[in-house]
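Input.
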Amino acid sequence: MPTFAYVGRTRQGAVKKGEVSAKTREEAVAKLRQQNIAATSIQEKAPTAGLLAALSVGGGVTDKDLVVFTRQFATMINAGLPLIQCLEILSTQSENKHFGKTIGEVKLDVESGSTFSDALRKQPKAFDDLYVNMVQAGEVGGLLDTILLRLAAHIEKAMKLKSKIKSAMVYPASILSVAVVVVAVLMVWVIPIFAKMFEEMSGGKMGLPAPTQFVIDVSNFMQAYLGYIMVGAVGAGVGFKRYYATPKGRLIVDRLFLTLPVAGDLIRKASVAKFTRTLGSLISSGVPILDGLMITAKTSGNKVVEGVILAARQSISEGKTVADPLSKSDVFPKMVTHMISVGESTGALDAMLAKIADFYDDEVDTAVASLTALLEPMMMVFLGVVIGFIVVAMYLPIFKMASAVG
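Output.
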């Protein structure tokens, strides 16, 4: 996300300088306005070297860092320690130096008169909208320690959900990578040796079997154009990444992901679990439902799901129910929309959302197991067929020579 350097004035007339992260200049101005800062000058900063930033030690804040900080902070607040003292202790003992520095900046903002939630809002790379709004609700309601414990539990469950999906993709991705490397080695270095041997043995007079000739032709092509193939693969990856970064491209790709067999079902169930868990946590913490739906839409991770949630938000703003637009989509199953409708009518929407989230956490486990069970034999068969075809193709001329000699 781009970073904007700004100069502005507070309501008291004091000049303030700093940085704010936002997708656009207009969004940056809106964020400053929320902090009661009127921007007099705002400039987008040039992006830093991405590779160096990615390789820098402690250059980011992980979910684990956030969980540890949140739980420790809740314990200290519950024990009666002053807010600034809690932040001072946590900034010095954080194992992630970058995160420790961020906490220190939050402490300085609180000391200068900002509320804790406003100080967190100035650090969007560490604390997202979900975190900030739940903390703000805890401050207003006087339940900051309770809200922080809910936040920690929410982040931990989100980490588990993310881990389940990653674990489902690691095995097939590793098998496919091994297959590509093995085939490339065979084609570029091994097959040319066989081709030369066949030519010397037959003196160029014996015709090769069709499978053997096909493998040799592919090998010759890869040797001649290996550099172009690698550049093309990298270019295709970069092109796809840029296309996916556009709103239209992301919508098309995300819709395609949802239609994939088995994997699409996993993505759909994970989206339902994330939506219900996040919205339930926000509502139970006292965040208004319209704000909760907006935050949930932004953090959904899928443009199709985001559109459905925004439609639900529009429905609420018009005095209708959340369940109606959700039931018209292909993302949310009928059982989910029916349970949400019951939760709305009984006034226990947060509790109902939590039950749905627990149920779909188990459903994600089942979907991950199904995907792994399906992909494992498919990858092994694919690898066996490709390698087996190459090996058989190389032995066919030898069998042909042996029969000719016989």
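DSSP finds 16 helices and three strands in the chain.
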